[in-house]
Design a protein that fits this description.
The protein is 42% helix and 17% strand. Strands 2-1-3-6-7-8-9 form a 7-stranded mixed β-sheet, with helices on both faces. A hairpin with a 6-residue loop joins β8 and β9. The two termini are 31 Å apart. The relative contact order is 0.14. With 210 residues, the chain is of the alpha/beta class. The longest helix has 27 residues. The protein contains 7 helices and 9 strands. α5 packs antiparallel against α6.
Length: 210
């Protein structure tokens, strides 16, 4: 699996800091900071059947590389391999995800802005459990049933971790900010999955009421 994580402002620096703190395994290629370019990504995706976990800034039709280019342009999306992308970035499942699925990519991304993860050391265990689930599970999402199961699993773990945060506040051991509690909810509720096999999208029913 590829980790593709930019680092050019406060939010992307927070993404990379949290990723490095978690010690996640299973990545054979790490494209971080200045290595997180669309050309490097194209090279790695072209060389093997491999999935990609990405953290950066995004918009409705772009996930930005280190230099602000679209990391998943037509050249990158148009390689012969079918692969999965989990995009921790704002808005990419509005247009880019649908475009990717129309070519050959199962796209797991967000339909609105999403907060950068909190860098407080007290959050390490919580984010480790969440992102371990994401990285273990998203490569297997290739049909509506698995997409729905992935979202329900993510919802379950995020709700559990949010309760743990409230318990920590009650015990006076740690008080998370409002944006962190929001992050526990938006991680699953703003997620929209586009499937390359059918071109359909899957999201939690409550997403429409967010």
């Amino acid at each position: 699996m590829i980790s593709f994580i930019t680092n050019y402002d406060d939010n992307t620096q927070d993404n990379l800091t949290v990723f490095n703190n978690l010690g996640l395994t299973g990545f054979t290629v790490n494209l971080h900071s200045d290595d997180a370019t669309k050309n490097n990504l194209h090279t790695e995706l072209s060389a093997r059947d491999i999935n990609c976990f990405a953290m950066s800034h995004g918009d409705i039709d772009i996930l930005k590389d280190q230099h602000g280019n679209n990391a998943f342009d037509q050249r990158v999306l148009g390689i012969n391999n079918t692969f999965n992308v989990f995009a921790y970035a704002c808005n990419t499942s509005i247009i880019l995800g649908e475009t990717a699925a129309a070519i050959n990519v199962n796209w797991l991304g967000y339909i609105s802005p999403i907060n950068a993860p909190c860098t407080d050391i007290e959050m390490n265990e919580i984010y480790t459990d969440i992102f371990s689930y994401v990285c273990d599970s998203f490569p297997n999402v290739n049909c509506p049933e698995r997409a729905s199961s992935f979202i329900e699993g993510l919802k379950s773990i995020c709700e559990q971790k949010n309760e743990e945060l409230y318990d920590m506040r009650e015990n006076n051991s740690y008080e998370a900010g409002i944006s962190t509690h929001m992050n526990m909810r938006e991680l699953w509720q703003k997620l929209k999955i586009w499937l390359e096999s059918s071109g359909e999208s899957i999201e939690n029913p409550s997403t429409m009421n967010w």
